[in-house]
Design a protein that fits this description.
Layout (H helix, E strand, L loop, with lengths): L1 E19 L5 E20 L5 E5 L11 H13 L6 E6 L10 H16 L6 H9 L5 H6 L2 E6 L3 E4 L7 E6 L6 H10 L8 H9 L3 H7 L1 E2 L10 H10 L4 E4 L6 E5 L2 H11 L5 E5 L6 E6 L1
Parallel strand pairs: 1-8, 3-4
Antiparallel strand pairs: 1-2, 1-12, 2-4, 2-5, 5-6, 7-10, 7-11, 9-10
Helix pairs in contact: 1-2, 6-7, 8-9
């Protein structure tokens, strides 16, 4: 049996940190949106007795070093279903370590795909539980759409979809340490928290102007991404409704009412940045492409 899935990236339309938790994690408030930028993950059952992972990007860990490998292992351990062998092939398009949940999306695709291949009939709650064993973004990536994510990212609530328009995502050629970003929050003297109630109200009332005004990321107060200001300037000059960093960065996105404006912004940004994507919102975190 063979199954190919589209593992969609995510954007944080809002990311606020409420507090540090005693276990070292953080209590979060995030509004998350799946987008059509995606990896392709192919699962094929075999008789090898092993899990293998290969990836089109040589910079991405192969084998046990890939979160997709751990996802497969967790699936079989937790379900108790018989295991004969599995190959996982990842065609990579989502930039790594970019605030877009690329590795988490692949792991989520493995959970959703094995649920289908093996007939496990896992519920959304089951997928959230397994995903939380892998990483804070995996539960959302397994379900996707537009969701409110709370606590460590594992308390999820569906939100009504919004016609946000075209998205332009830019990933600068630099890295950001997520651990260092949270440490910067922990040691900050002052934190400007975001208008969470206003964002929730705007979403429930389908008030797009209100949503756009409140799109924000608390990490932007602590993380220095030198290109962020330049990218935001280009996005806004081309009529972006908003411009914001996703996750702990460094990716920055803009939302456009006009597809022409989005394409013009992308063309301007590609003069200086290699990783520029024009995409749409997605209704799901994982979508089945082919089942053989």
């Amino acid at each position: 049996m063979k199954l190919t899935l589209r593992a969609n990236a995510k954007l944080n339309l809002m990311l606020d940190i409420l507090s540090a938790l005693p276990n070292g994690y953080h209590d979060l408030f995030m509004v998350m949106q799946s987008v059509s930028l995606h990896d392709l993950v192919t699962l094929e059952q075999n008789d090898s007795g092993a899990i293998t992972v290969t990836c089109s990007d040589p910079a991405v860990p192969q084998g046990e070093g890939n979160l997709a490998h751990k996802a497969a292992r967790v699936f079989f351990e937790e379900t108790g279903l018989p295991f004969t062998g599995l190959s996982i092939a990842i065609e990579k398009h989502i930039p790594q370590a970019a605030g877009l949940a690329g590795g988490s999306a692949d792991a989520a695709a493995v959970l959703v795909g094995l649920n289908r291949l093996c007939g496990a009939h896992l519920s959304d709650r089951d997928l959230i539980r397994l995903g939380s064993m892998l990483g804070s973004d995996v539960p959302f990536c397994a379900l996707g759409g537009l969701m409110l994510a709370q606590h460590t990212g594992t308390v999820l609530s569906y939100l009504p979809p919004l016609p946000l328009g075209k998205l332009v995502i830019v990933t600068p050629d630099c890295t950001v340490s997520t651990g260092a970003a949270y440490k910067a929050f922990d040691t900050a003297e002052r934190v400007r928290h975001l208008d969470k109630a206003g964002m929730f109200r705007s979403i429930m009332e389908a008030d797009l102007d209100g949503v756009f005004r409140r799109i924000d990321n608390v990490f932007e107060q602590f993380i220095d991404v030198p290109e962020r200001v330049v990218i935001k300037g280009v996005l806004r000059r081309h009529c972006a409704e908003c411009a914001c960093m996703s996750g702990s960065g460094p990716s920055v996105f803009g939302i456009f009412e006009s597809e022409d404006d989005a394409e013009e912004a992308a063309r301007a940004l590609r003069r200086n940045f290699k990783s520029v994507f024009v995409c749409d919102c997605a209704d799901r975190g994982v979508e089945i492409v082919d089942h053989q």
